[in-house]
Amino acid sequence: VLGAQHSPWNIILPLGISFFTFQQISYLADRYRGEAPVYGFREYFLYVSFFPQLIAGPIVRHNELIFQLELPPLRKGLYERLSRGATLLAIGLVKKVFIADTAARIADPLFASAGAAALSMIDAWVATAAFTFQIYFDFSGYSDMAIGLALMFGLTLPVNFNVPYRAASIREFWRRWHITLSHFLRDYLYIPFGGRRHGKLMQSAALTLTMFLGGLWHGAGWTFVVWGLMHGLGLAVHAWWSRLSGIVLPEWAGWALTMVFVMTGWVLFRAPDFPTAMSILASMFGGNGFAGAASAYGAHPAILVLAAGVALIGPSSQAAALERGYDRPWVAFAVASAVTLSVIMVGSRLHSEFIYFQF
Predict the structure, then answer these.
(1) N or C terminus of the chain: which is more exposed, having fewer CB within 10 Å?
(2) pLDDT band at 29; cut points 50, 70, 90
(3) Is 155 helix (H, G, I), strand (E, B) or coil?
């Protein structure tokens, strides 16, 4: 109106602001409901500033961590905790540097080029598979390292991933993927929206709205919004199907359907804009033709076979590290430390930023 031009403020947000904000929201909400005690300044400050998980999760509730901070240091089992923590730290680092970052060298150029020209069907599926494994090993790798570091301090953080790509339904997927976020959305959005107190239609609406807001939390772009809505509608449809159809799919069919659904969603999550996402999805399902040669990839696609084997056959690293013990903990600690140092030296020039650092 006044003819003045203003440029948007260049505000630099703290790294991982959404994750430590979630932690404080959970405490304030529980305190408002009368479900949390008043903690002293020292305990609360340690809770909100404990660094391993602060940047990208797991999202830790006050009742999962503060009571551990108030306990006296335990000397019993110290060496075993150190060995388990160091092992999980090494596993997470290997996941990130050698699997996630290698998969990124396949996915990134293909997603970047998809905006200029349609990918072949082969390239579209390779790009989608590469990002599917990249985000899993990137994110679960960070969670492994965070949980491992906490164990070395004598603290136990909640499991955040439990082999999600083995899920035979979308509901099971969200019980295995980013578990602490799923619990946060359930307890502070879905239930307050009436997800457990009203009729089936209201439950479906609450599911859809919750996942829509979960998508919006990742970013205000249409790709994230549609990704959230897609998962919300998928959860609602699954709930209706389970109650009304009486048809139980074979486990392999449920798994295949879930993986195609999840991978379709990852295209929306990764694509730089909505038209690019639609172009890649069209190529995946034959909308741009079935012919076309594969591109020269930035890394050997055999890494995807390795990633699939680990994701679909391997054990849950977080659950295994928290449950098992070692007969010779110092040997395990020494081996894990050697692996960690080797990965740092070999992969220091190959690594990229964790995906969830941007949220």
Answers:
(1) N
(2) very high
(3) coil
CA proximity to 358, closest of 269, 268, 279, 231: 269
Predicted TM-score (pTM) of this structure:
0.88
pLDDT digits (tens, 9 = 90+) for 92-115: 999 999 899 999 999 999 999 888
User: How many other CB atoms sit within 10 Å of the CB of residue 68?
Assistant: 17
- Tell me if residue 31 falls in helix, strand or coil: helix
Instruction: Say whether 218 is catalytic.
Output: yes
For range 20-24, the mean pLDDT? 85
Q: For residue 181, which amino acid is it?
A: L
Q: Which string of b and e fits 252-288 if b means at least 16 CB within 10 Å?
A: eebbeebbebbbbbbbbbbbeeeebbbbbbbbbeeeb
Q: Are 53 and 19 in contact (CB under 8 A)?
A: yes
Closest Cα partner for 58 from 159, 141, 135?
159
Mention every residue, 6+ apart, whose C-beta is less than 8 A from residue 335.
none
Which is the catalytic residue, given 183, 218, 238, 351? 218
Closest CA to 85 of 341, 345, 324: 324
| Closest to 358 in 3D by CA, of 252, 177, 224 | 224
Query: What DSSP string describes 53-77?
Result: TTTT-----HHHHHHHHHSPPP-TT
Residue 1 banded pLDDT, cuts 50, 70, 90: very low
Question: In this predicted model, what pLDDT tens digit does every residue of 123-174 receive, in sequence order?
Answer: 999 999 999 999 999 999 999 999 999 988 888 899 999 999 999 999 999 9
- Helices 101-113 and 121-152 pack at an angle, to 10 degrees, of 140
